[in-house]
Write a structure and sequence with these properties.
Blueprint: H1 5-11, E1 18-21, E2 25-29, E3 37-43, H2 58-74, E4 82-85, E5 101-105
Antiparallel strand pairs: 1-2, 2-3, 3-5, 4-5
The protein binds adenosine monophosphate and zinc ion.
Length: 110
């Protein structure tokens, strides 16, 4: 989608610090980390938020979780724990309208 920051990152128009990529998803370091490990995972398909998920996306969301768990293991934070969150809408503080999942860890979280 035009004018979507994360679609531009997916297309390579805006650089990112890539952690993982395949045909379905891209994971990259958050530009403004809120924890020692802060990685965002986005589907390559543009979906604006969790409100816009369709039944056909069920497998994709499950897949994103398995990718994030693998990243947590690779980055060595899975033993001590981590948090996966997705903000939806204004009240939750969603600032980019392309669904994304935050992986936070590497230290005690607030
Ligand atoms: P949210 O507030 O849940 O919508 O999360 C959006 C996240 O995207 C924030 O944590 C931002 O720091 C992050 N972000 C914004 N622009 C970039 C970028 N160019 N590269 C990496 N992360 C970004
Ligand atoms: Zn997008």
């Amino acid at each position: 989608m035009e004018d979507c920051l994360f679609c531009k990152i997916i297309k390579g128009e805006i650089p990112c610090d890539k952690v993982y990529e395949d045909d379905k998803v891209l994971s990259f370091k958050d530009i403004n980390p809120e924890a020692p490990v802060h990685v965002l995972t986005v589907p390559k398909k543009h979906i604006s938020s969790t409100n816009d998920l369709k039944a056909e996306d069920e497998e994709l969301v499950g897949y994103i979780y398995t990718v994030m768990v693998k990243i947590a293991k690779q980055l060595g934070i899975s033993e001590k724990g981590y948090r996966i969150i997705s903000n939806c809408g204004e009240d939750a503080g969603q600032t980019v309208s392309h669904i994304h999942f935050h992986l936070l860890g590497g230290g005690k979280l607030d």
